[in-house]
Amino acid sequence: MRSKQAQAREVQVGVAQDLRVNAAELAHQRGVLVVVDNTFLSPVLQKPLALGADFVVHSTTKYLNGHSDAVGGVVVCKDGELGAQLHRIQNSAGAIMGPFDAYLVLRGIRTLALRMAAHEEGGRAVASFLAQHPRVVRVYYPGLASHPQHQLACHQQRGFGAMVAFDVGSLENARTVCNALKLFTLAESLGGVESLVSHPATMTHASVPKEEREKLGITDGLLRLSVGVEDPEDLLADLDRALAAL
Fold it and tell me: What is an example of a Pfam family matching this protein (predicted)?
């Protein structure tokens, strides 16, 4: 399958992509296929195919599975011919998910809508709390009215998810917060029922040159949260205690 592709991916936490106009329509005018990574929102909160995307990809390891105990991915399209081409490539390459992983993902999907509602409740609460905290420099979450793409997110999404990023000003401060957190586990993954914290500059983006990652907004003081389904009050208390250590 040879074609030009335009990809919309979650490079920056809390940055929405305008799929209907800036991506899909402009790309299709130039004969370019649009591929959207919808992992952060899941099909519950955003449906890229309905917005004009040609392909949607998900890491099923994340929200679709929801329990951090399976590894897999999925590519979805609505065009039968493109789907047949993908199937031939998959068959030739042997890109087949393990049967037990597939079972765990299918089981997880049964509770996806319920989990996403709980995730978002926690995400909103955490983002609002951090936005008002004096030790936090900046918060990235499109569910906040102050976010520059809030209206765009309202237009094309059914919710804002549970991925929240915030900047505490320095590498030293970021380490202090991570070490003080108790309910948020330090890990690179996301989308499970448990809440996680990561430091992108030294974890997910450790191999990216500092100048390049800072252009993406990934500073030394940036922390990324994957908010789980725990009681929001417990999560806020944990964050409050950790920030008090600064």
Answer: Cys_Met_Meta_PP
